[in-house]
Amino acid sequence: MIWFTADTHFGHKNILDYINRPFSSLDEMDEVLIKNWNDKVKPSDEVYHLGDVALCSPNKLKKILERLNGKIYLIKGNHEKSTEACKNRFEWIKDYYELIMLDPDGFKGQQLVVLFHYAMRVWKASHHCTYHIYGHSHGELPDDPNSLSFDVGVDRHNYAPINYQDIKKIMKNKNWIKPLLREE
Asked: Other C-beta atoms within 10 Å of 21: how many?
């Protein structure tokens, strides 16, 4: 199973007020995020984290990362100092990634998914039904029903990762229409 998430902000006390997260303490937030992650993600699953993993000491983050299930791939966000100190827990760390999903409904059995921490208005092959998933906005950027882009941050998804099949259902329900291009 393949999962996506962003903006966990483990150990970040100010995020409780900044985003108005419904937790009484930082410890409660971290524990709920860990529990929700592990309730969904199995040890053999893959998780693409689209940035802002944590704002805490590398030692604290290391202990949290050891408790999370799955093989984790990181797309860097704007708060990754501690995360980069724990780089061995990640399969890789990149600024941007183009993930090709095997999908019988996609073009030639594949679906291109562009992964970036920030929302983009256009991305590689966006005019050819590719998906773009992002974080950073903490659910405060209104979803565009006419764009195949989507915020996978925990603040939009009950503080848990979301899987590819659920993202695909969301994208299928959007009003996206392939634009007419001059070269076509």
From this structure: 19
Q: State residue 19 phi and psi, 5-degree precision.
A: -105, 0
Q: Helix crossing, 26-40 with 58-67: angle to 10°?
A: 30
The H or E element containing residue 74 is: strand 71-75
For the chain, the 3-state helix, strand and coil shares in percent, each to the nearest 5, are: 30, 25, 45
Predicted structure pTM score: 0.94
Reduced to 3 states (helix: H, G, I; strand: E, B; else coil), residue 2 is strand
What does the mean pLDDT of the chain come to?
Answer: 94
CA 47 to chain centre: 8
A 10 A CB-CB count for 107 gives: 12
Q: DSSP states of 139-161 as a string? A: T-SPP-TTSSEEE-BGGGTTTS-
Cα 35 from Cα 116, distance rounded (Å)? 25
Structural domains of the chain, with CATH: 2-172 (3.60.21.10)
pLDDT recorded at residue 60: 97
Q: Could you tell me if 107 and 89 are in contact, meaning their C-beta atoms sit under 8 angstroms apart?
A: no
